[in-house]
Amino acid sequence: MTYTRLAIFCFYALLATLVFSLPAFIFDPNIETIFHISIWSIVYFIFFCFLALYFGKTVAKSKDLNAINKLFMVLVFLKLATALAVFLIFVKFYQPEGRWFVMPFIGAYITFTIVEVISLKSLSKMKSQDEK
């Protein structure tokens, strides 16, 4: 997968995140908080997807057959831990009221995880084809 193709997938994930966030924008009176968590989430997950692709391309060149699987496991744990940290920092900094502010974050987490899996899966396919 190329960085351009990943950018296109990230754009689609951004749109899906915004659609997923619509109930929060409609039902939460504090639109500014929803807007900020949306921006924080989207920027964080786009950065993480590009970082994952960079490391995936590096690992794909490795002779270790399980290197991509190991990278995937590390990235899942790292994304979970850092995403939780970003979310907790947001909650501490903005002190949002209500519960709707969680929707954009969950939407971004799900959609960008799909993008990350697609990009790493394409790299593992390329690696398996190179070995044949």
Give a concise summary.
This protein has 132 residues and is mainly α. The chain has four helices and no strands.
Structure commentary:
- The chain has 132 residues and is mainly α.
- The protein is built from four helices and no strands.
- It has one domain.
- The radius of gyration is 17 Å and the shape is elongated.
- The mean pLDDT is 88.
Chain-wise SSE layout:
Elements: H1 3-27, H2 31-60, H3 67-94, H4 102-131
Helix pairs in contact: 1-2, 1-4, 2-3, 2-4, 3-4
Please trace the helix and strand order, writing H or E for each element: HHHH
Shape descriptor: elongated
Low-confidence stretches: none
Q: Which structural class matches the secondary elements?
A: mainly alpha
The residue fraction in helices comes out at over 70%
Kindly, what is the distance between the CA atoms of the first and last residues, rounded to a whole number of angstroms? 19 Å
Question: How many domains is the backbone divided into?
Answer: 1
Number of strands: 0
What portion of residues belong to β-strands?
under 5%
Query: What kind of sheet is the major sheet?
Result: none
Q: What's the total helix number?
A: 4
Instruction: Give the averaged pLDDT, no decimals.
Output: 88
Radius of gyration: 17 Å
